Fold:
Amino acid sequence: MSAGERSLAGWGRQPRTVGSVSEPTTLAVARESIAPAHGGSLIPRGLGRAYGDSACNDHGRVVVCERLDRFRSFDPRTGLLEAEAGTSLDAIIRTFLPRGWFLPTTPGTRQVTLGGAVAADVHGKNHHHRGSFGGFVDVIELCLADGSVVRCSRDQHPDLFFATLGGMGLTGLILAVTFRLVPVPSAWVNVDYRRTRDLEHTLATFAEHDARYEHSVAWIDCMARGRRLGRSIAMHGSEAAASDLPVPWRGRPWDLSVRRAHTFPFTPPCSLLSPTTVRIFNELFYHSHGSGRRVVDIHSYFYPLDGIHHWNRMYGPSGFIQYQAFFPRESSHAGLRRLLGEIVRSGAASFLAVLKSCGPADGALLSYLEPGHTLALDIPYARGTIDDLCHRLDRILLDHGGRLYLAKDAMMGPTTFRAMYPRLPEFLTVKRRYDPNHLFSSSQSRRLGIE
Structure:
């Protein structure tokens, strides 16, 4: 590597790239990074929690925006917050949850920037009710390829607004975001746990209970086979009232003690998550979670893995890929059955497997979700073996009208991508309009043929 270059990867640590990294501390300096004199392509990057190579630019420039983290304004009457794009969801929670405000929807980690949340149009456990993050965004302030700054919304430059939502940083450098927080009665969630015996029972549980709860998610046992295929622990939750809380917290419902996070201290020589260890964990987890209601704090319900810093090291030097598959409602049962069957036959050990219900799309040109179900799988990477497995899984998705999530993708090919995202031509038209020379480019965008 030359001076100024760094090794970069996504959270899955696969694939690895080399990029020339800059870390602006002000918006003015960030805008200067767009100047043509710098040469080459660039891609913005936040806290690096995209799993694949969407925030990498092999042998190109990477603008890390995490230090652009200032709050600009907040309206306590409406919950409208304007903040710079490098502001983390964690900082927003720490600042506004004690005042009774929370994120309208949230991914499974707090360590995501606002710019990343917009670029990936993140979603959470309440998608079936609230949709994706983009549905709560009012204004995106964007630095374009020519150095100009525009504020786009549903009324101003709507083409650019809906291309930037879910556009993986390919339309410009996001400088600031204005979006709406939502009031919550406490920092706790009433969660009803239901153990299901197989995939049919899991989907029937979703169908029966989703409408009554704000949040819907299931841990699914990807090692179970035969009649137990798709057995799960369904976890339906809604925000808890102060009267529901443990006695010590009723007088301070939005106050959460800061929990001490543990750190996974090193990268072992091989993945610790073998089929045997995952099978043992899954048996213990399944049988230790019986049906019943518990009141849990938001960190435990929404962000369980944030309690272990660098948990991705557990997968060893080869890293892992996250395969997040979406199936539309009419084909989700058949598609999930085939997908899970293929995972079981392959012997791939998915330690983390999460199934969620999905609601309407939000108008983004590269929108990922619509009514149906999405399944996220963490799979230890082994060159060749996992590549072949992912191609087989892609085929199942295509056969059932499904698609992969770009923020998790590390291996999809251009033909598959075009088939899964039918509005790609519209996106490319907008990109050519605002970035005719393809200044904004990533390892992923070149792999997928987005340019």
